[in-house]
């Protein structure tokens, strides 16, 4: 018997599990800072559901987690897939169905990415406790091949539209 092979598949898809982890982490951190937002995009606060949604900010978080993984472990990354979606906040959704790492390792790199984002990106001018994601979104958009435009979320405009 292979000791590294899981005994059974998780009842929840990996993407959903990681999204739940991110939303829960966000809620706990937000509670520690008195309910104030953790992250903003163009000075608009993002809620926990936006952060953990595969069509919200989760693609950005997982893209950053994969970059951290590439830097520290393996250049080919852990296998997150990004798909074009005109209705998604950043015009991309993320899928983690084909990740070739353990869920525990994936969650560790996700947490590392979240903490790295909070520690190294600038704070919002309007919400000093919140981290402004604009610069990281610009890097993500450039690498994903999206161009400035309008992306829907809570009726707001955030600049990312796919080519073509």
Average pLDDT reading: 84
The fraction of residues assigned to DSSP E strands is 15-25%
The biggest sheet, with number of strands, parallel, antiparallel or mixed sense and barrel status, is: 3 strands, mixed
- Spatial strand order of the main sheet: 2-1-5
Helix content bin: 40-55%
What is the total number of structural domains?
A: 1
Q: Can you count the helices?
A: 5
Number of strands: 9
Q: What is the CA-atom radius of gyration, in angstroms?
A: 16 Å
Keywords: Plasmid
Structure explained in plain terms:
The protein is 41% helix and 15% strand. It has 164 residues and is of the alpha+beta class. It has helices spanning 14-32, 48-52, 58-72, 103-120, 134-144; strands at residues 39-41, 44-45, 81-84, 92-95, 131-132, 146-147, 151-153, 156-158, 161-162. The longest helix is centred in the first third of the chain and has 19 residues, at 14-32. Strand 3 (81-84) and strand 4 (92-95) form a beta hairpin. Helix 1 (14-32) runs parallel beside helix 4 and helix 3 crosses helix 4 (103-120). The protein starts with 13 loop residues before the first helix and ends with a strand. It contains five helices and nine strands, in the order αββααββαβαββββ. It has one domain (14-162). The strands form four sheets. It has a three-stranded mixed β-sheet with strand order 2-1-5, with no helix packed on it. A two-stranded antiparallel sheet has the order 3-4.
């Amino acid at each position: 018997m292979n000791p590294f092979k899981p005994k059974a598949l998780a009842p929840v898809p990996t993407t959903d599990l990681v999204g739940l982890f991110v939303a829960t982490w966000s809620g706990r951190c937000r509670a520690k800072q008195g309910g104030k937002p953790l992250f903003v995009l163009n000075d608009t606060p993002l809620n926990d559901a936006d952060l953990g949604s595969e069509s919200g900010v989760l693609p950005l978080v997982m893209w950053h987690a994969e970059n951290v993984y590439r830097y520290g472990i393996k250049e080919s990354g852990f296998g997150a897939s990004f798909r074009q979606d005109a209705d998604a906040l950043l015009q991309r959704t993320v899928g983690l169905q084909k990740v070739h790492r353990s869920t525990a390792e994936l969650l560790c790199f996700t947490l590392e990415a979240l903490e790295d984002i909070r520690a190294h990106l600038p704070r919002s001018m309007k919400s000093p406790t919140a981290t402004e994601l604009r610069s990281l979104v610009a890097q993500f958009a450039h690498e994903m091949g999206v161009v400035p435009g309008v992306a829907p979320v809570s009726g707001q405009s955030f600049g990312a539209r796919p080519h073509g």
